[in-house]
């Protein structure tokens, strides 16, 4: 999943970026509210981690812009403000969750998992398609009980396909969710990684789960 981190404290921004990247997320980061608004206009995110006290435009202003423009992307507020009034204001403004500094990185990651799976209508950490399972907490992938080892990008791609099971996804949409602004690869990167994933997920199985919709894109289906 693709995440935007908007946090003006450089050390905190870097820590969050590294933690999320290590957990398999595609991450963009910025350091002020105006940048955050620009990023949100330029890409689709599955989650936005938003500090309240930022220069140029604070978190409340960024959130207001998002909701007024119709964006329903889940927002997790980070802030040093721990008063009930500030928490209520953030939640009433449209934030989905609120974490007060200092906080545990493990708690942050748990909240990230809750928000991303809730946004896709999932109620637990295990996604399924036929005999394929993916655990978003442990990143363990199994087909018919057999564990499958995936690279970070292969895992991200499979997770996105499984969250959108039965929905045809264009190459452009997949690329926008899996790769961040720093990516400088080839134009056929989605096709390449779909090929890698098929070999590992479908290679030994009679039932093919990852399918091509010619002229449109790809879809993961658990039915004939």
Helix/strand class: alpha/beta
The gross shape turns out to be elongated
Which H/E pattern describes the elements? EHEHEHEHEHEEEEHEHHEE
Percent of residues in beta strands? 15-25%
Question: Tally the helices: what do you get?
Answer: 8
CATH class of the largest domain: Alpha Beta
Overall domain count: 2
Poorly predicted runs: none
Assembly annotation: single chain
Task: For the largest sheet, list the strands in their spatial order.
Answer: 2-1-3-4-5
- Overall pLDDT metric: 89
- CATH architecture of the largest domain, by name, is 3-Layer(aba) Sandwich
Largest sheet: 5 strands, parallel
| Counted beta strands | 12
Please tell me how large the radius of gyration is: 18 Å
How is the CATH topology of the largest domain named?
Answer: Rossmann fold
Explain what the structure shows:
- It is a single chain.
- Helices cover about 40% and strands about 20% of the residues.
- The chain is of the alpha/beta class and about 220 residues long.
- It has two domains: about 1-120, Response regulator (Rossmann fold), CATH 3.40.50.2300; about 125-220, Arc Repressor Mutant, subunit A.
- Strands 2-1-3-4-5 form a five-stranded parallel beta sheet, sandwiched between helices.
- Strand 4, helix 4 (about 85-90) and strand 5 (about 95-100) form a beta-alpha-beta unit.
- About 30% of the residues are buried.
């Amino acid at each position: 999943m693709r995440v935007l981190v908007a946090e003006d404290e450089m050390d905190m921004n870097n820590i969050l970026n590294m933690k999320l990247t290590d957990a398999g997320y595609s991450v963009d980061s910025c350091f002020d509210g105006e940048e955050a608004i620009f990023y949100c206009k330029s890409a689709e995110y599955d989650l936005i981690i938003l500090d309240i006290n930022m220069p140029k435009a604070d978190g409340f202003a960024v959130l207001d812009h998002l909701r007024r423009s119709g964006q329903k992307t889940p927002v997790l507020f980070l802030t040093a403000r721990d008063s009930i009034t500030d928490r209520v204001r953030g939640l009433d403004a449209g934030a989905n969750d609120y974490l007060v500094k200092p906080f545990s990185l493990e708690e942050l990651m748990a909240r990230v998992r809750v928000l991303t799976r809730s946004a896709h209508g999932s109620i637990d950490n295990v996604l399924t398609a036929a005999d394929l399972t993916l655990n978003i907490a442990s990143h363990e992938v199994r087909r018919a009980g057999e564990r499958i080892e995936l690279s970070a990008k292969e895992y991200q791609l499979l997770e996105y396909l499984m969250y959108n099971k039965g929905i045809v996804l264009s190459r452009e949409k997949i690329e926008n969710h899996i790769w961040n602004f720093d990516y400088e690869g080839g134009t056929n990167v989605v096709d390449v990684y779909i090929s890698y994933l098929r070999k590992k997920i479908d290679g030994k199985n009679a039932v093919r789960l990852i399918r091509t919709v010619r002229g449109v894109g790809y879809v993961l289906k658990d039915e004939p």
